[in-house]
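Saturday, quiet lab. Running sequence design on the structure tokens for the scaffold JK sent over.
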């Protein structure tokens, strides 16, 4: 990930047992500047809670807007 030159946006479900949030934190630490990470409560790896879209969509839209 250290070789990536594009902005990086990471999402992790706090309840993800498949890929724990600690893995996302490690990627975040190793990513170059222009990065964000979001840890969404109530989310696991394959199943989102009913309001998941409303949780991550505005965060991702803000990330995209900040890049342009």
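Result came back. Writing it out in full:
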């Amino acid at each position: 990930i250290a070789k990536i030159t594009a902005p990086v946006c990471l999402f992790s479900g706090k309840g993800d047992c498949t890929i724990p949030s600690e893995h996302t934190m490690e990627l975040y630490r190793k990513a170059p500047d222009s990065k964000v990470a979001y840890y969404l409560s109530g989310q696991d790896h394959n199943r989102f809670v009913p309001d998941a879209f409303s949780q991550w969509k505005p965060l991702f839209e803000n990330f995209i807007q900040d890049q342009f």
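Notes for JK: The mean pLDDT is 87. The chain is about 40% helix and 20% strand. Ask whether to fix the surface positions before the next round.
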